[in-house]
Amino acid sequence: MDRAVYTLMTLPHDLIVDFENPPVAEVGLSVQLQGSTLDTSRAISAFFPTVQDRYPNIVSQPPMPPIEESFEIPTQATIAFQLFGGPEAQRWSFVSENRLEMVQVQRDRFSYGWAKEETDTRYPHYGAIRDRFEAAYRSYLDVANGDVQATWCEIYYVNPIMQPEGEPRPDLSTLVRRLVPQDLRGLPRPFNTGLEERFQLERDGAPYARFFLEVQSTVGRPRRLGYTITLRMRGRPESPDADGALAFFDEGRERIVTAFRDITSPERHAEWGMR
Q1: How far is Cα 103 from Cα 96, in angstroms, rounded to an integer?
Q2: Which domain holds residue 121?
Q3: Could you check whether the bond before residue 222 is cis, i.e. omega within 30 degrees of 0?
Q4: CA 242, CA 260: separation in Å to the nearest integer?
Q5: pLDDT digit string, tens, across residues 83-102
Q6: CA angle, residues 26, 6, 3, in degrees to nearest 5
Q7: Cα separation, 167 vs 33, whole angstroms
Q8: How far is CA 86 from CA 76, 89, 144, 215, in A?
Q9: Closest among 216, 65, 90 to 154, alpha carbons compared
Q10: In angstroms, how far is CA 245 from the centroid of its own chain?
Q11: What is residue 83's predicted lDDT score, i.e. its pLDDT?
Q12: Does the residue 3 lie in any domain?
């Protein structure tokens, strides 16, 4: 675990790992808010006009759950229920014309997401995604016109890695170097395989974030088999202002991209055109 403040090795627009055909299909940046945040009516009447040119489409959705982390060691698994109701239990999604970008606002959350879904759109890289989040978030803070604080932040990358149509899903050890292949006598190839790891990060001797590594067996269209690697960092920013949130995202991106390179195999690097 880290015992000191994390020192960035790169700038936001620097390429840490450069692939000609990176497998990343989705990136999200999100902040949990408290303070003079916008209510439902102000999100539409005051904030939406500031981003309407880039995100002209409005979609109403249920609110997202909180993103806080508890750094205590759990003693027993529990199930928590949270009720969302009332006039402010609303999330507004402002979507770009090409449907690749989305800004989402609810009373206690602001987020930006890029997702190419099934298209052949090229990944714009983190620097561009960060710029678009920052522009929309600072517009939000200007309209809120109050002491809005980011209490928690989250950044995630989703990487679907699919086989050509008709080919079987390979052993996960051919993709993820943290595993070794093993033949089990009397058993066929696994139908589904997954991996989940959590890492607790510390700042000045106290936990402030968790890093999540998840690999799941997935099925794409048209019936293509493969795996999805999701890397996520969630925690408290060092300061509650916009600069603190951006610094958290920069750290998270560096950890995510570096971890993705380190856990995936050289054979896959060659397939994706690592430069």
Answers
A1: 9
A2: 26-67+88-183+201-271
A3: yes
A4: 27
A5: 344 555 689 999 999 999 99
A6: 125
A7: 45
A8: 32, 6, 21, 37
A9: 65
A10: 14
A11: 39
A12: no
Evaluate whether residue 142 is within a structural domain.
yes
Residue with tokens 């561009």, as numbered in its chain: 128
Q: Residue 111 has which token pair?
A: 């987020």
What is the CB neighbour count within 10 angstroms for residue 29?
27
Measured between alpha carbons, how far is 54 from 36 in angstroms, rounded to an integer? 25
Euclidean distance between CA atoms 44 and 59, whole angstroms: 11
3-state helix, strand, coil in the chain (%, to 5): 25, 30, 45
Cα–Cα distance, 38 to 86 (Å, whole number) = 15
Phi, psi of 159, deg, nearest 5: -125, 95
In a domain, 11, yes or no: no
* Block residue for tokens 């949990």: 32
Tell me: the pLDDT tens digits for 101-129?
999 999 999 999 999 987 789 999 999 99
Count the domains in the chain.
1
The structure's pTM equals: 0.90
End-to-end CA distance of the chain: 30
Q: Is residue 251 part of a domain?
A: yes
E strand or H helix at 138: helix 126-144
For residue 96, count CB atoms less than 10 angstroms from its CB and return exposed for 0-12, middle for 13-18, buried for 19 or more: middle
For residue 258, the SS3 value is helix
Instruction: Name the band, by pLDDT with cuts 50, 70 and 90, for residue 3.
Output: very low
Written as six digits, the tokens of 60 are 């109403």
Closest residue by Cα to residue 238 from 39, 26, 2: 2
Give the 3-state secondary structure of residue 131: helix
Burial class (CB in 10 A: 0-12, 13-18, 19+), 39: middle
Residue 34: count of CB within 10 angstroms of its CB: 14
